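Kindly go through one protein, given below as sequence and tokens. The question is how this chain folds according to its tokens.

***
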Amino acid sequence: MFGLGRNVTLALVGWLWADILLGLFVIFLAAASAPISADTKAGPSIDPTPIELSVPVDGARLLGDDEAAIDAEQAKFAKGVTDHLSALGDTRRVALVFAYGSHGQPAEGERLASVATAGLETTSRFAEAVMKNLHDIVPGDVGTSVALEIYLYR
């Protein structure tokens, strides 16, 4: 009838067959993918609540050239931080520290935080801690404090 008949039917059957094979291929491909491992390595996790404190420092001494004065100020800073943690009665190890050096100039504030926290790396609680030194822009400040956010392991 009208010249359509067997040829059109065979063409449609061919396309239908190809679509079915493509669908089966996708289903088998998804079924054969590697299963997601349910094994999670149980390691220490970080407590999301930080301990926040601000330690007064002498920015002129920390940013100066006198090595003895820098060492003394670093030791004073480290003692202040460890005393504060001891006063809390928390003996957990430190995982992460964000240190914010207050200064009028951003680069100097970051340098202040870096120099001040260098003394913490020698203490046992901070030995494996990740330190991130940042600046806290305070107009007119010449480095009077370093604020810390300390995250501990659970």
Summary: The chain has a mean pLDDT of 88. The first helix runs from residue 6 to 31. The radius of gyration is 32 Å.
